[in-house]
Design a protein that fits this description.
Blueprint: E1 2-11, E2 14-16, E3 20-31, E4 34-50, E5 53-68, E6 71-73, E7 84-85
Parallel strand pairs: 1-3, 2-4, 3-4, 4-5, 5-6, 5-7
Length: 86
Amino acid sequence: MHETLNLKTSLGDLTSDQTLLAKNINVKAAEGDVVLNGCQGEVLKGTVEFGNITLQQLDASVDLQTEEGNVTVSPVKSFIYSTALL
């Protein structure tokens, strides 16, 4: 498992069909949607200015922020750490 995985885009969607494995996963998008179909680690931090965040098969604590957009999380595998949606 990797220590840290950083994903960033300025314009456009960020999509992963594979499970992301890392202790810390950082996702940042200025304009566009983030769709992750599997995340496993300790902490997932995501910031999207204009767009939606969709997470499926989540197994990590989360810190998610969006200026304008929706956050959808389903289903959650387990709550190992404290989880907060901001």
